[in-house]
Amino acid sequence: MRQQEYVAKFKGKSPFTPQMIVDGQRQFVGNSARDAQDAIREAARQVKTQVSIAAETPSKNDAGRFEVRVGSVAGIADQEPADVWMAVTEDGLETAVKAGENAGRNLRHAAILRTLHKIGAVPARGSSPFVLNQQVKFKSNWRRENLRIVVFVQERKSLRILGAASARVARNWDARLEGAE
After folding, report:
1. What is the rounded distance in angstroms from the CA atom of residue 110 to the CA atom of residue 169?
2. Separation in Å, CA 14 to CA 1, 11, 42, 102, 181
3. CA torsion sign, 72 to 181 to 150 to 106?
4. Interval 110-152: pLDDT, tens
5. What is the largest CA-CA distance in the chain?
6. Tell me, what DSSP letter sits at residue 145?
């Protein structure tokens, strides 16, 4: 669904792999290191909305609660609201490729998307800080030591990313996050 939205935004014919989109504004073939570095440098120079994630006491073994804070939205278009999204990603996964150009290879993956949900919206004008407590369910086959919670704020129409934060779920799952960014 999200990839189809980007196809429409960039007036493409269909989604492709590997595709990389930076800040919802620039797309290119994802294996182009030079394009990736240029796009990331350019995006890093833009004013960003402050986003933070804090863990609360887990409600049970397969779930945790997180407080999400979004500061005053920076750089938002005049009339365009922004959506707040939360994702769970997992690192350290591998695929044994059986066919195709990578047949016989083990491919290591980073930041595999496990879940993605819109958790709120921020109005275009006069936005005050947004605070939300969100429960996240973890499936038993996910390795918690490899999980990250990611929150990002995205303009609804332009798909531009206004701000983001990421934090690793603690290895011992003691209701803390490690390395909040």
Report:
1. 15
2. 12, 9, 26, 23, 33
3. positive
4. 899 999 999 999 876 666 678 999 989 999 899 988 999 999 9
5. 55
6. G
pLDDT, one tens digit per residue, over 48-78 is 889 999 987 655 567 888 999 998 887 676 6
Distance CA 146, CA 168 (A): 8
What percent of the chain is helix, strand and coil (3-state, nearest 5)? 15, 45, 45
Helix (H) / strand (E) containing 154: strand 147-155
128's torsion region: left (phi>0), alpha (psi -120 to 50) or beta? beta
- The encoded tokens of residue 135 equal 């429960």
- The values of phi and psi at residue 65, to 5°, are -115, 140
